[in-house]
Amino acid sequence: MERSLGEKEQTVKSETGDDLPGGPEAGQEVMADGVGVLRSCWAAVRAALFNRRALRDAVSVLERLDVREGNVVADIGSGGGFFAFEVARLAGPTGRVFAVDVDEGLLGCLARQARRRGITNVSFLHSAPEGPTLPRESFDLLFMRNVFHHLADPVAFLRRIAPALKGAGRLAVVEWKPRRRSLWRHSTDEALIRFSAEMARFSLIESYAFLKDQSFSVFGRR
Question: Does the keyword field hold Methyltransferase (predicted)?
Fold first, then answer.
């Protein structure tokens, strides 16, 4: 039985890395050589960090994603897997979630989590940096959280994934806002996100302002 968000906040570390970095399972689930063990542990550490960050405002974000039972969703840039697994819970056994990432180590970590937790409605897809290849007209929702600033060509990326949406499908983008006097460049201005989406033939459906440090925009296809 899946736990509530509050319970998960206390157990993110154990779920993502089995009390890493030196837990006994880390060395059992990868190659016997030391390099494989280190890579597995590092992926699990990163997954735990991503998931702790994802917990903030998670309930409000999930409510606005409005995932229904039976929906098919792609979590593009799934990171530590927090949202992929929560969306899978909401989509139910008749739904499907694709956890998509460029990092094969993180995807392997998520696949092990899914096996341990008995989650069977999540698939794991390795993506090229220019974007994943997704089946056409198959998805009710494409979700991108803190991904936009990594894109070398946002318009081309969005054009690549757009055909995967069903007619009434939505694209939801959560992204760090630029901050003054910050050397941290992992952010994208909301105006640039909207411009890129419009160039890729998306139209804005809704914009939410409840996230302190992030923008949250939902688009549909034109």
Answer: yes
Residues with Cβ within 8 Å of 220's Cβ and at least 6 positions away in sequence, in order, are 168, 169, 170, 171, 202, 203, 205
CATH topology of domain 57-221: Rossmann fold (3.40.50)
pLDDT, one tens digit per residue, over 12-69 is 333 333 332 223 333 333 333 333 333 444 455 545 555 455 557 788 999 999 999 9
Residue 160 CA, chain-centre distance (Å), reads: 18
- Segments making up each domain of the chain, as ranges: 5-52, 57-221
Instruction: Residue 124: count other Cβ atoms within 10 Å of its Cβ.
Output: 20
Q: Residue 173's beta-bridge partner residues?
A: 144, 217
Residue 134: pLDDT band (50, 70, 90) is very high
* Calpha distance 101→79 (Å, rounded): 7
